[in-house]
Specification:
By secondary structure, the chain is mainly alpha-helical. It has helices spanning 3-7, 11-35, 42-66. It is elongated and about 45 Å long. The protein starts with a helix and ends with a helix.
Length: 67
């Protein structure tokens, strides 16, 4: 999801999305450890970047509401 699409969401929606992404990353790491390989190894990198993007936007929104 693009950053501008994430900025339209509320903090609660972003936190829910963040938990979903973290769970997906954990599942991918588990599958890689058990099976030895993934269908799409690049998906791990994309998920990590998505998590960072969501963290950044949550921080921006919290600073915006505090300031």
């Amino acid at each position: 999801m693009k950053a501008h699409e994430l900025r339209e969401k509320s903090i609660a929606e972003l936190k829910a999305r963040l938990e979903d992404e973290k769970q997906a990353l954990q599942d991918m790491k588990f599958n890689r450890a058990i099976a030895g390989q993934l269908e799409n190894p690049a998906r791990v990198s994309m998920t990590r970047k998505e998590i960072a993007r969501i963290h950044t936007i949550i921080t921006e929104k919290q600073q915006e509401s505090a300031g």
